[in-house]
Design a protein that fits this description.
- This is DUF3105 domain-containing protein.
- Keywords: Membrane, Transmembrane, Transmembrane helix.
- It comes from Streptomyces bullii.
- Pfam families: DUF3105.
- With 220 residues, the chain is of the alpha/beta class.
- 38% of the residues lie in helices and 19% in strands.
- It is globular.
- The termini are far apart.
- About 13% of the residues have low confidence.
Length: 220
C-alpha cells in the first residue's frame, strides 16, 4: 500500500513538473514570436523553400512508411515493443503505417495537442504520431468499446498531461494504448495496466524528443 502511495505521489510530482516546463516553454515561445517579427524577410525566404519542398513531397496523396522497418515483440507484461527502425521524417501527405494505430514513423510537421486532449472524432494519424514523438500516450478505441469505459478513460486523460484520446475505427481491439514504439490492449478503464502504461510511457525513456511541447499544435 505504501509503495502504491509513493508511486502515485511520484507520478503527480512528475506531472506537475511537466506542467511547469510546458508553461515555461510557452513563455519562451511568446518571446520568440515577438523577436521573429524583426526578421520577417528571412522568414519569407525560408517559407518559400518549405513551400517548394512541400510541393515536391505532395507528388502522391499517400506515402508508404517504407523507411520504418521491423515488427512487434510482446513482453511478459503484455506490452508490444517495436523492434526495428521507426523513421522520423516530416511529411505533408498521408502515410500508410504498418500497424494501426501507428507507434511511430514519418509524421506531419505539426503535432496534435496532447495536454490531456480528448477528441471525439477520428484525427489525422500523422499528427498524432508527432505527439508520440514528444512523449505522449495516445488512448484509442473503436465502436466495440463500452461507453462507460470511454467516458472513464476520457476523464483520466483530461487529468494527465502528455496524453490524448480519440476513436480509431479500424484498430484491432476495442481499447488500445500507444506510445512511441510501444503498444498494448487493455480490457477497460479499470484495467490496472492503464495506469501502469501511463506511468511508464508518459514522457518515458522511449521519447525521441523529451520535453517537447504538447500545446500550440493542432486541435482538430
Amino acid at each position: 500500500m505504501g509503495t502504491a502511495k509513493k508511486s502515485s505521489a511520484a507520478r503527480k510530482a512528475r506531472i506537475a513538473e511537466m506542467r511547469r516546463a510546458e508553461q515555461a516553454r510557452e513563455r519562451r515561445n511568446r518571446i520568440l514570436t515577438i523577436g521573429a517579427s524583426v526578421v520577417i524577410v528571412t522568414g519569407l525566404v525560408v517559407g518559400g523553400v518549405v513551400l517548394v519542398q512541400s510541393q515536391s513531397d505532395d507528388s502522391g496523396s499517400v506515402a508508404s512508411d517504407s523507411k520504418s522497418t521491423g515488427s512487434f515483440v510482446t513482453g511478459k507484461d503484455g506490452v508490444k515493443t517495436w523492434k526495428g527502425t521507426l523513421s522520423r521524417n516530416h511529411v505533408t501527405k498521408a502515410v500508410k503505417y504498418p500497424v494501426q494505430p501507428p507507434v511511430g514513423g514519418d509524421h506531419n510537421p505539426v503535432w496534435m495537442n496532447c495536454n490531456g486532449d480528448v477528441y471525439t472524432e477520428q484525427i489525422n494519424t500523422t499528427n498524432a504520431v508527432h505527439s508520440l514523438e514528444h512523449g505522449a500516450v495516445w488512448v484509442t478505441y473503436n465502436s466495440e468499446a463500452k461507453k462507460a469505459d470511454v467516458d472513464a478513460l476520457a476523464a483520466k486523460v483530461r487529468k494527465t498531461p502528455y496524453t490524448l484520446m480519440s476513436p480509431v475505427d479500424d484498430q484491432q481491439d476495442p481499447i488500445m494504448l500507444t506510445a512511441w514504439g510501444h503498444q498494448r490492449t487493455v480490457t477497460g478503464a479499470d484495467d490496472p495496466n492503464v495506469d501502469a502504461f501511463l506511468e511508464k510511457y508518459v514522457q518515458g525513456q522511449q521519447t525521441p524528443e523529451p520535453g517537447a511541447a504538447c500545446t500550440n499544435g493542432l486541435s482538430k
